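User: Fold this; tokens only.

Assistant: Input:
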Amino acid sequence: MQPNLQDHSGRAAVIDCLREYSDNAVEDQIDYQSDLEIVFGLDSFSGIELACEFSARLGVQIPKNDNPLTCVDEDTGNKRFRRFGELLEYLAELPRTR
């Protein structure tokens, strides 16, 4: 059974995936506004590997050209790192593979 990305088990599963590529974050310090780049010490290249991890562990289908760690800022049109809550929302909106 895949974790529900809208509840605590989904949040914990995403944190576990992020921790695979960083040991900087303490779960109690992560909230929906946490910057993935700062809190986890991730870079955009980590997103490529995390896309595979999220797909396998969470059962979501991430589009081939998407980096789950980044998004386009609505105000500037520039790419930026997602906040933790934005990542959860992004992953929850993706089609399920199983």
